[in-house]
Amino acid sequence: MTDPTAPTAQPLLDVSTAPLPTQRTLKMRRNIPFQLVRFVAFDLRIMRMVLKGHKGDAH
After folding, report:
1. 3-state SS of the chain?
2. Confidence at residue 16, expressed as pLDDT on a 0 to 100 scale
3. Element (H, E) at 21
4. Which are the contacts of 35, defined by CB distance < 8 A and separation ≥ 6?
5. Which of 1, 8, 9, 53 has the fewest Cβ atoms within 10 angstroms?
6. 27-to-14, 20, 35, 47, 55 alpha-carbon distances in Å
7. Is the pLDDT of residue 56 over 80?
8. Is the whole model's pTM more than 0.85, yes or no?
9. Cβ atoms of residues 21 and 29 within 8 Å
């Protein structure tokens, strides 16, 4: 069995060729009001999904 921590071990994933975010993307990620809106929208989608699942519940 080989040691996975050995210096000759190959990396599991090479992200060196991954695209970098644009300046606009970075700005939006740091924009607190924009993130709040996204957070609320995501929460509403999840809540809708949960409520749909409970609609047919016999409890």
Report:
1. CCCCCCCCCCCCCCCCCCCCCCHHHHHHHHCHHHHHHHHHHHHHHHHHHHHHHHHCCCC
2. 87
3. none
4. 29
5. 1
6. 26, 13, 11, 28, 40
7. no
8. no
9. yes
The answer on pLDDT for 59 being more than 70 is: no
Instruction: Write the pLDDT tens digit of every residue in 27-41.
Output: 999 999 999 999 999
How far apart CA 59 and CA 54 sit, in angstroms, is 9
- The rounded mean pLDDT for the chain is 86
CA distances from 51 to 25, 31, 38, 40, 59 (A): 33, 30, 20, 16, 13
Taking residue 42's Cβ as centre, other Cβ atoms within 10 Å add up to 10
| Whether the predicted pLDDT of 1 surpasses 70 | no
Specify whether the CB–CB gap between 31 and 25 falls below 8 A: no
